């Protein structure tokens, strides 16, 4: 659905993107991560045809944004950087005006989208009376008006409170479930990304340094955290079985060893086992490892 092909971009001779490629499949939720200045917004800007790459191409559903922008973006909705609204007009008037820039205003479709984002009772109020969360919902309504197949979201949960973040997460997951929406978004909220995304890419100084599935972040490592007594006896036994002792209470099991059998064996040699838990590497662990 979305394809970035060897993108390069420099600003004033300083590279912002170097040879960045990735694909997002239809119905996938894909997260773009990286420190400040890593190149995330530049990437989204290129996909939206707002930034011209020095080399490479972005394609949406096979159509090149650089060669055929209007056609490529026909089924794309976006929230890019801080959405701007006419504060002295109502949410409804804003949607009416903004949607006529690219299509004919459709009151019925607009009403449906407004209800969907939960702004039904405040859509006639002036935008200057909106909270940050309501402005984000209005931006989401605007992004959904073209009936997109792809949503591009630039730090969509930035500044939202925990309830707003949860609402947003559930909303995006529902869009994917009910409409098969493809979503690409960048964020600094790693827990959020971990809970929402199927795959992530990490950019570092303009280069893609990682891409992988969120459910496979742990790789092939089998690390367990143990609460056992006495630890020395357990450690000695586990070492003899081929385990690697990483730290007190932390071991790596070789692939052929079944953890359940290890627990039984430890109990058999009179070690008290209170806990024997797999350690899952979080997205934050991986992110810090890669970007440090
Ligand atoms: N219009 C511009 N003119 C000059 N330099 C720019 C421009 N846009 C981006 N850059 C530079 O390109 C690099 C990448 O910026 P970009 O905004 O893509 O990073 P980012 O990962 O989105 O950062 P953040 O998380 O802070 O939003 C930075 O060094 C930035 O200063």
Automatic annotation (TrEMBL):
Residues passing through the membrane, by range: none
Keywords, in A-Z order: ATP-binding, Nucleotide-binding, Transport
Domain ABC transporter: 2-230
Gene3D superfamilies, alphabetized: P-loop containing nucleotide triphosphate hydrolases
Statement: the UniProt record of this protein carries the keyword DNA repair: no
GO molecular-function terms, A-Z: ATP binding
InterPro entries assigned: AAA+_ATPase (IPR003593), ABC_transporter-like_ATP-bd (IPR003439), ABC_transporter-like_CS (IPR017871), P-loop_NTPase (IPR027417)
PROSITE patterns registered for this protein in UniProt: ABC_TRANSPORTER_1, ABC_TRANSPORTER_2
Family listed: Belongs to the ABC transporter superfamily.
Name of the protein in question: ABC transporter ATP-binding protein
Species the sequence originates in: Haloferula helveola
